[in-house]
Automatic annotation (TrEMBL):
Keyword Phosphoprotein in record: no
Lineage: superkingdom: Bacteria
Protein name: YIP1 family protein
Annotated InterPro entries: Yip1_dom
């Protein structure tokens, strides 16, 4: 199903119809997309935290995560994306409970997975985690995700476009709450188990690596 990802941005109506037909034939065919695409923000977060350094905490001083803390953070990010897609799938099924063609859970999760693609791709912004990079990237991802929702809902769920606006608004409202809740849960979980002293400034990192000025 990876071949459908470019079409979401260039031909969304046709692509959503093809995704629907594919999910009908292979209900769990979306799982590789969910599990592998979620690695994009996870690996980017690892690189941004351990190698590039973070400068988004109200200070211009660049700070770094230790390798262990960055690895745990990457796992937390991956779990957050996977968990959010699964939760959103059940939210979609719940929101559409009165529709004639209420989707099964697998269809809901597949739909949520492809809705999450803009956010997964936007995770590349974490390779250079600066405020001026992350904010526009995530805002653009949110915009694309909303556009995909309104294109995909009538095509994937086989409903009239007029009804899609109402159900789409409900999915957005519930989805934002779910996304924030899942994100906070995994962030707090990471903070609880991350090793102490996980942040290092540039001077400390150079000292740890045996950096000698003038050489």
């Amino acid at each position: 199903m990876f071949r459908y990802i470019p079409g979401l941005f260039f031909a969304p109506k046709t692509t959503w119809n093809r995704i629907h037909d594919d999910v009908e034939r292979r209900p769990f065919g979306f799982l590789p997309v969910l599990l592998i695409a979620s690695l994009i923000p996870a690996l980017s977060a690892y690189y941004g935290g351990a190698v590039a350094g973070w400068a988004i905490f109200g200070s211009d001083e660049r700070r770094f995560l230790s390798s262990e803390a960055a690895g745990l953070f990457a796992v937390a990010v991956w779990l957050a994306f996977v968990s959010n897609a699964i939760l959103m799938g059940y939210i979609v099924r719940w929101v559409l409970y009165r529709t004639p063609r209420r989707p099964p859970a697998t269809h809901g999760i597949a739909f949520a997975t492809f809705l999450s693609i803009p956010f997964m791709l936007s995770g590349l912004g974490a390779l250079y985690p600066e405020r001026w990079v992350l904010l526009p990237v995530f805002m653009l991802a949110g915009l694309f995700s909303i556009i995909q929702l309104y294109y995909g809902l009538p095509q994937f769920m086989r409903m009239h476009q007029d009804k899609a606006y109402f159900y789409g608004a409900c999915i957005i409202a519930a989805g934002m709450l779910a996304m924030v809740s899942v994100g906070v849960f995994y962030l707090e979980s990471w903070r609880a188990i991350a090793p102490p002293g996980e942040y290092q400034n540039l001077d400390e990192q150079r000292q740890d690596e045996g950096f000698i000025p003038g050489l």
